[in-house]
Amino acid sequence: MRIAIVGGGPGGLTLARVLRRHGLHATVYERETHRTARSPGGSLDLHPESGQRALAEAGLAARFRSEARPEGEEHRILDPAGHVLVHHRPQPGSFSGRPEIDRRVLRDLLLDSLPDEAVAWGHRLVGATPRPDGGFRLAFHGGRHVDCDVLVGADGARSVVRPLLTDAAPAPVSTMVELTIDDVDRRHPELADLVGPGNLWCVGGRRILSGQRLGDGSIRVGVSLPADDRPLDTYRDRRALLDVFDGWAPHLTALIEAGDGPPVPHRIAAMPVGARWAHRPGITLIGDAAHLMPPVGEGANQAMLDGAELATALAAHVGDPDSAIRAYEEPMFARTRAVAEMCDRVQAMMLSPTAADDLVRFFTPRPTESAPAD
User: Fold this and answer.
1) Where in the sequence is the domain holding 195, given as residue range(s)?
2) What catalytic activity is recorded (predicted)?
3) Is the pLDDT at 371 greater than 50, yes or no?
4) Positions at the binding site for FAD
């Protein structure tokens, strides 16, 4: 059984790794030319029920614990004046919550668990055609072709595989602008203290200014705004970006001023909640290709769980990939619908006029009711 996985993100690599643990081989076709061709992004909090569970099924739980940062779970929420609204401090050294791991470190962890030949670098898919005897012929940029029996689209938000199964497409939900501050402890100790070892959210006025501490000593700064029709180039100018936060405390907007290099804006999109497709033999989707959600901490976790569950289904139905895909898809649709609904609610809450009050309620534990007296 020739299994082709299009996309070498956390979901696709988890799928390849768990398949290999079951004695099944797959090839991951990745558009990047090598593992360090571009920055994989910021940090992820891996959840016990999804991302950590997938790594356990991949046999990588111990390696994850050696690389993850439990202290990265610390989370601060401030208002525009800099008042602390929420300060979550994790239990020191505990992996029972949602420890952080840099995307680069996670990707290396997964890549190092696979033989070199498992990933075909520099393969950008441009089309897939059904074969008369089943399976698909894949066409890559540059004229290369490959045949497969099972095609898995793990190729993210702009999936080339997705249109083979559904007309559903992502729609914009917000605008994100990113900056990076390198060597922050030495160059900007006051900002290192502000963000702490984990995540900082400054919320108010339907905008968010965030900071995320990475394991390499940098801070990833993010600005989240409601989706609008203004050109993205509007936000490439640092002065214009600072104007968006006019009136906010200067020690907060210092995160924007300290960014190395120009701001990098892009649209954030999401698939319609509950999007699904009619089963088609020999092909399926995982991760953002299947259920792109607002970026509130679930995307990579669900992608990795997709990969682990699809691998388990394929291993349980060797010789019958059609049954395996059916066994994977229906539970995945149910699971990710509930998660996507939650992500939509959180996204709307964070960019609402009442975000500060809403987030305080969301993150404040409810008191346990006392038992009635006898």
Assistant:
1) 171-270
2) a tetracycline + NADPH + O2 + H(+) = an 11a-hydroxytetracycline + NADP(+) + H2O
3) no
4) 45, 103, 288
